[in-house]
Amino acid sequence: EAIDVVLFAPLAPIFGLVLFWFIQLLFIEIQKALLNQLRESHEALIRFTNFIGIFFQTICHALGYTLTRSGISSFYLSVDYGKVDPKKKKSGVFEWLVNMFLFIGPFFFPPFLLLAYFFLLNDSGLPLMMQETFTFAENLIVFGSNLFEFTKDLVFFLGGIDLFHPAHVGFFLLFILLGLGIRPSYIGKRPMEKVDIFYDLKNIRYNILHKPRYVFLGVLTAYLFSYLNVLFNQSFYVAVFSFFGWASILAIFALFFAEILLFCFF
Fold it and tell me: pTM for this structure?
């Protein structure tokens, strides 16, 4: 059991999060296929969803420059293109972090905003399960239980949403925007390279392999955080990954609802 706790247990919530993130990517790919079929008959809808996706992506890029204290010298956003230029060009870990915000940020940052909104409206509190042991199996069970309880709360909330309540209407509109535009489809007038699941994964893979030592430091930090949780008998390690899992589940629900809406246009 000691070997399990030291070597394998920290990987459990990471594997769980990666699984849900890949499910999210698959839903995005399905949505892009639907949008592509609607390209000729509903161009206005395509341009709208493309703009929302580029907006999220550009905001994440700008956030990366802001948090790394690079500053922003220019910010450009259009229906089919977005660009952010920094005041100071930084290298090393700062450049790597900016690229991670650009490549991965759109998958999590917009859902996190909606997640915060959800918890402001929901009275159930954070559905976090405490744990007594810290093995791989226990970490995975706790992670899964946290996601299951959140999913249950989300389903009940969406099923009983009050469209005459201003805050609920705001949540529902953001929910639709997230589902329709979590990733740009690049189906505008400007010619762009085909952007699909492989394009996204290629960019993420390049950024990881370009500076593997930063990934190693990130994994090492995760392991140290896991050991501190074992030492102090806390569940914060799994809780952190659960937040990312909740954001992914929220995105999956938003994408699923958006795809039902898109079917109505056929």
Answer: 0.91
